[in-house]
Inverse folding.
């Protein structure tokens, strides 16, 4: 596996009740830049950010769980609720 910002544990972290993005991760625009930044980063650690653990997961349309075009995918809803 290539050392990239996208597979670093420290690309996201909790800060004062919100989730912050690593400054270098958010500034890269190409995969080559991302690989270079991760190679030079002393905080790099392979894995998933702890702030995205399954226990803290909350379904939402912004996470791609459901959208206004298919509201029956929302938690607790069924297509039969709309027919």
């Amino acid at each position: 596996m290539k050392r990239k910002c996208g597979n670093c544990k420290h690309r996201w972290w909790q800060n004062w009740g919100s989730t912050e993005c690593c400054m270098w991760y958010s500034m890269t625009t190409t995969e080559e830049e991302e690989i270079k930044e991760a190679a030079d980063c002393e905080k790099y650690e392979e894995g998933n950010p702890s702030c995205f653990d399954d226990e803290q997961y909350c379904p939402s349309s912004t996470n791609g769980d459901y959208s206004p075009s298919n509201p029956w995918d929302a938690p607790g809803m069924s297509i039969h609720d709309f027919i």
About this structure: Strands lie at 12-15, 18-21. The CA atoms of residues 41 and 81 lie 51 Å apart. The mean pLDDT is 77.
